[in-house]
Every structure is written in structure tokens, then in C-alpha cells.
Write a structure and sequence with these properties.
Blueprint (H helix, E strand, L loop, with lengths): L2 H31 L5 H19 L5 H6 L16 H27 L1
Helix pairs in contact: 1-2, 1-4
Length: about 110
């Protein structure tokens, strides 16, 4: 398998993982908005927590990005994922703010 083919495979997997976590975050946001905090909401929160832990362990980089660096010397923020450059650049900020809002809503729903 060529380096370009390996990078393409990594980009596909990375994009699929990104989509998966969008679904998880979307479900958690829905659960908080409609006050349906069930076991799936807690599972979604655990998955997000696990993703945050992985990012912390890898110094705020996705492990797939670390692997993709072996096959590319590009400095573009989207070299390892099929996202627009602006979204890849601000991904952590955007989703961090969304998650902060969801967590505030979750705390509100659970304790008030």
C-alpha cells in the first residue's frame, strides 16, 4: 500500500470517527433540550469524556493525526480528515463551546 493510499484510508477513518462523535454530541444536545436524560445520554457523555481523555493523552491531537503525520508533511489543518480547512482549524474550539453549553444544560436539568 502506498503512502498516499494509507493517508486516504486514515482520512476516511478519521472522518467517520468525526461523524460518529457529531451524532453522539447531537444526541446529547437533544437529550438535554427535551429533558430526556436517560442511559443513552450518560453513555454519550461517557464517550465524549473518553474522547477528551484521549485528546489530553495525545497533547490535544487525535491519535489518527499522529499516525497520518507519517504519510504527509502537510501543515494544513485538514491534511488528515475530509473537512473544510476552516472547520478542521477551529474544530476543538467550536465543539468545546458546544459541549460547554450542553454540560451547563445537563447540570441544569439534573440539579434544578
Amino acid at each position: 500500500m502506498t503512502a498516499a493510499a494509507k493517508l486516504t484510508a486514515i482520512k476516511l477513518v478519521h472522518t467517520a470517527v468525526w461523524i460518529f462523535f457529531n451524532v453522539v454530541i447531537g444526541y446529547l444536545a437533544y437529550a438535554v433540550l427535551v429533558d430526556r436524560i436517560d442511559q443513552w445520554a450518560w453513555i454519550a457523555l461517557a464517550l465524549i469524556g473518553l474522547e477528551c481523555l484521549v485528546l489530553l493523552l495525545f497533547k490535544m491531537a487525535c491519535p489518527l493525526t499522529v499516525v497520518a503525520r507519517r504519510y504527509s508533511d502537510s501543515q494544513r489543518p485538514n491534511f488528515d480528515i475530509y473537512l473544510p480547512e476552516w472547520l478542521a482549524r477551529y474544530n476543538k474550539l467550536i465543539y468545546g463551546l458546544i459541549l460547554l453549553g450542553i454540560l451547563v444544560g445537563l447540570v441544569w436539568r439534573v440539579w434544578f
